[in-house]
Predict the structure.
Amino acid sequence: MIEVKGLTKVYRSGMLGREQKKALDNVSFTLHNGETLGIIGESGCGKSTLSLILAKLLEATSGSVSLNGQDVSALKGKELKAYHKQVQIIFQNPETALDPRMKIEKCILEAIRNYDLAPRRSEKERQLLEELIGMVGLQKEHLSRYCWELSGGQIQRAVLARVIALEPELLIADEPTSMLDVSVQAQILSLIKDLQKRLDFAMLFISHDLDVVRAVSDRVIVIRHGVLIEEGPTEEVYEHPQQPYTRDLLDAFYYDKNIPGIKGEGEENCF
């Protein structure tokens, strides 16, 4: 469904933009319908830059992104709006995605009305709104509140309601649970996976929590300094990493958690 070829992003800084920082370097991969692709790598490796380019919130320096065989690099106007409906993103800080001056009802209706999914102030619009909050586990009483009156988990549920209203083909989840309590994280992850099964969208999942990536992903790609260095089925990459950096990344994560990660030869693997 999504095909990325030779994606490169160079940031320029300093006087006259002479200083360059290559955030992505010739990244290529595919993402299939209904699949979850996890992205792992240390902070600053280019994960979020990649997600912003796929969401058409940032332009690549070179390379291409195709959705269902169509190159999306030159999309403008109505075609770009249609692409934004197909590719949705949820961020690390869900409260930043909602206007604090608007009640939750209006925040969700904003998406519905922007894409004319139902006649304004109609019974169909009300039914759609109630169906959406039911799908994400919110109550009618939450609609009359502002985002700052809700918990972090409730805010993320409201964000998800607005996202799934558009029935996207691809959901980009950039650290969607890192700002939530551990117990709430599990609930939101379970909700996202349930919605994926129900609505059949593909997902690009980014997280520093390698356990979470392992639990939700079908395949994983590993990025280091903007370069895609390893790709494969999730269990294969976790159990038998081919690159020294991938082994170091897994070892560091599980060492910090006081859990053995990649065991040496002759040692039993903890998984």
About this structure: The chain is about 35% helix and 25% strand. The chain has one domain: 2-256. Residues 8 and 25 are 5 Å apart (CA to CA). Residues 260-271 have pLDDT under 50 and may be disordered.
